């Protein structure tokens, strides 16, 4: 357990961490209330019998009706304004509402509490309007106000409570008080929900919440930040001490989370990304501290060196630069500023052209050529890889069709296109690929999709079915950069893979590193044993090609043969090749 120096917080939380599972604020009997969906034109979603009785209504109101269309209600504008303010601020609102009764009784003047209800995802999904007609209702409404600061699923304090605590720290702490925020993200948690369902995922979140509680040092404050994130607040009088404490706590949490979580007989292994931000309570406001922790957490997710990252000022600059670049990439995609270059894939037995690999290029209007190493990860993180990948696949297939029409003797050329895990996990991905093939007028056998090992391993159950669907279209499948990831032989046996591509890092060092040479030898033997084709990437020297040929690798690509070529240059390359060698 990490050392945390005892330091009294400015608040004491005596509320139980977990609420009874039977407690459901949407269906509390004996209280006059109705619920509203704020995101669907303020629509009525339920109404209690007590409210119908209290309002003297002759019949229940139609569920799904908007407030504006309920003719028997007056003062609707005031109620609507309170609902919108509740939704936008995620806080309880109060109002006095005058309601005409349908039974002819005098109009009612009611005191209402408009309360946000947070669902299992940690987001606000329902507004509850409590009509306070007696002391019991008033007490219950006050209780619901408290729930505005608690997560319904885990019972932990939520983000609102955390902000409240941080703001109190900011306003009341002495100048020397130091605080640290650990923002904890459960990596790939959406995969759990997609594979096992949201009810199963909710059970895991409860288990994680309880496990994190067992990791807490004295007086640390744990909250559920949002759907797949938790946060912990620690404090000390010395900035080096609070940072040491926070890093030690993060290390301890990582250690404890190495153990799988058992839910419904399933052992689930999860990894965490933790970002840490520290500062003076009296100088750093709550939102800024959380923003810095979030920046560190997101940056950590893009690195493999450490699982915890402490915020540094340069991270803010990088985050701003990445956001700017993301917006520019979005515009570039929309304005057709991206292009494909095509690197020839060559038979090293006779030098003939076998196909091309399509590679995305971005010529920035101010910065010039931006490396794919920079913008492809950004596209994956932002989700832009889905439309970008769809465009690249369509463009590559269209180019291949045009070349074949001009040079029919190259009708057997194969186009290699990289696809990401986000693309593969899109609904009806195989159907989308088939439509592209049909529109381009090429056969599935003329397309090879390249997938990374990480994509296969991390999304095994979901990806396998997609790959099988692609195989029904006669599409070939390759593992890109083989040997740099998991390289699990069991996964090679489970997936319908046709080709292994040797990563250029091994090729670059094969004549100077005995280990690289041996790895290529093993991969070559493996490919031949499993009946797979083998392609070497990054061939730049004759000696490399000769060594690869001796190891049984007869297909390759690299600058020894050609750099990636723009569309017109690739077509010229085909023209100069002449009829393919037999």
UniProtKB/TrEMBL annotation:
It holds the Pfam family GGDEF. Residues 322-578 form the EAL domain. GO terms for molecular function: cyclic-guanylate-specific phosphodiesterase activity. It comes from the Bacteria. Residues 177-313 form the GGDEF domain. NCBIfam families: GGDEF (TIGR00254). PANTHER family: CYCLIC DI-GMP PHOSPHODIESTERASE PDEF, SIGNALING PROTEIN YKOW. This is GGDEF domain-containing response regulator. The lineage of its organism: Bacteria, Pseudomonadati, Pseudomonadota, Alphaproteobacteria, Emcibacterales.
